[in-house]
Amino acid sequence: MKFSKKSRYGVAALIDLAVNSKNGHVALGSIAERNEISPQYLEQVFASLRRAGIVKSVKGSQGGYLLKYPSSSITVASIIQALEGTYYLDDEETKTEESAAGIAETIQEDIVDRVNHGLDQILQNLTLADLEESFQERQSGGQEMYYI
């Protein structure tokens, strides 16, 4: 697995959308500008996210995007799958090796499969809402607000 630029930009843009869409749709250009991402590239990313049912578009001159579901229902796994197809570690050598005494199977089962299982657990349990909350905590400097 490689965390590609496409996945990084997609996750960043969705965090931005989650934070900024509380009062309605958000223009793709404003997301691109805030995150310093090419608007043309971001259009391609959002086309994949729209096809996967993660975002929905509002057409027109005042159009933009909204999350199709609450951010708490959107997993990081679903985002990466929409953009990359898979997020699993892939060992090309294991597929083609003719190794003695089950070495290829040992590598596959004891390393690759275990890493993939752990990765799956993390990404299936991490939601866009979790990332949104973490981002907002960082934005506020991690300081709690006290009111008197």
TrEMBL record:
UniProt xrefs under InterPro entries: TR_Rrf2-type_CS, Tscrpt_reg_Rrf2, WH-like_DNA-bd_sf, WH_DNA-bd_sf
Keywords from the UniProt entry: DNA-binding
Record's keyword annotation contains DNA-binding: yes
Superkingdom of origin: Bacteria
SUPFAM superfamilies: Winged helix' DNA-binding domain (SSF46785)
GO molecular function: DNA binding; DNA-binding transcription factor activity
A GO cellular component entry from the record: cytosol
Family matches, as PANTHER family: HTH-TYPE TRANSCRIPTIONAL REGULATOR ISCR, WINGED HELIX-TURN-HELIX TRANSCRIPTIONAL REGULATOR, RRF2 FAMILY
Name of the featured protein: Rrf2 family transcriptional regulator
